[in-house]
Amino acid sequence: MQPASSRTRFLPGPRRTRYGLLAALVCSTLLVPAPLMAAGAAPTANPAAAAEVEADVFAPNLSHFTLTNGMEVVVIPDHRAPVVTHMVWYKVGSADEPEGQSGVAHFLEHLMFKGTTAHPDGEFSKTVAELGGEENAFTTTDYTAYFQRVAKEHLPLMMAFEADRMENLILTDEVVKPERDVVLEERRMRVDSEPSSRLREALTSILFVNHPYGSPVIGWQSEIEALNEDSAIAFYDRFYTPNNAVLVIAGDVEADEVKALAEETYGKVARRAEPGARVRPAEPPLAGERRISMADPRVTQETVSYSYLVPSDATGTDGEPEALELLAYILGGGPTSRLHKAGVLEQRIATAAGAYYQSGSLDMGQFGFYAAPTPGHDLDEMEKLIRAELARVLKDGVSEEEVAKATKSMIAEAVFAQDSQQALARIFGSALTTGKTVEDVQTWPQRMKKVTPEQVQAVARKYLSGDPVVGLLTRPKPEDTAAATAPEKQG
Ligand SMILES: [Zn+2]
């Protein structure tokens, strides 16, 4: 977990961890497609943490309550240092945007730093900097969050500032138009000039043809260009209301003092909208293979990716999300996984090969594979490698021993991750804004320990037997550089 430095507005799009609980840890990598996150990106289990694995409940000292205006509050005491992490999470993301206004959730996130009547001209950010604190904000498909990390004595001030901008944001043409240019530039930098990001965007749009997860969090360029003060304020008035927000405070505090402070600050913000149920269009089952191939001379490492739609932690039942987590870990979660062993260590045809389960969404999740060839090998071989390992698991399943080992490693990594105050705050904030409860997170180790090898094979057969959505990132062949950069839709 890297401490947030000055506010960098990154866009956590789809997550790329092997399992959901730790998803929040790698948000800053989000625009990097899975194939480029080589196997080395996997954290290794901490032996010291493994000893604590017996702990069956995460953050047992956590408190959770709701203010009278409907704002949820989570307090996680952590007295190792006199600092606090203060986060406000809104249950709104790009998948909640009105049609034709893709990017408005992220655009509003930028505009939230412009100021209020009481604190104009970016005074909040300046104060955080003067106090030696850190701040950040991020938008995903399902939530938008703002956070500061400061010395504990400054917590009341942070709460007062954040509560103020929940209801008193002031936007004028003067600030809106230049900020829209900032966002357009962000899109050019992060998406348009990155072949891997462009491919990921195109792939996501064919993976979700009806559900709004198919639109990029940052928005389509033409729709960002049409965003204005009115669209931003309408979105703000509809979703930035205390009954749609979750406050998470981790650090050198006790629940009682936070409760009193929260009542004095957030508790006074009027409930000004009823956002209602988050019902998004469903994704229909589609026949046939969908495949996008993109060639670009800037590509340094060719890669292939396979994606499948699967249940998420929030939509899955009967232990299926936990079984999918184990399946991803066994197949492709790091240096001991089947894909890494086969492709990188034994056959030596891949520089990286793995699998992941993106489980943290409010609606459906994704299961993916990726592989990148070593020089002299090609993407056909990478596809064969993935298909072979997938076929093996579909036919023969996984062993009791593999499940036991993977469960132990995953729980140890999760226990280790809790050492980071911010990581812990993010885990609970993201869970509560994506349809899960505090208890769901706390009892995750208990659920993981119940998964059987039969369940792992069953989810593989149920969800990974059909055609994947395939992405191929290549360098143009010398003879056809002219046709190089246009993404091509097929299927
Ligand atoms: Zn941004």
From TrEMBL:
SUPFAM superfamilies: LuxS/MPP-like metallohydrolase
Domain Peptidase M16 N-terminal, first and last residues per copy: 73-218
Protein name: Pitrilysin family protein
The protein's required cofactors: Zn(2+)
Secretion signal, residue range per the UniProt entry: 1-38
Region annotation Disordered: where it falls in the sequence: 470-491
Family per similarity comment: Belongs to the peptidase M16 family.
UniProt key word Signal: yes
PROSITE patterns, per the entry: INSULINASE
Coiled coil spans: none
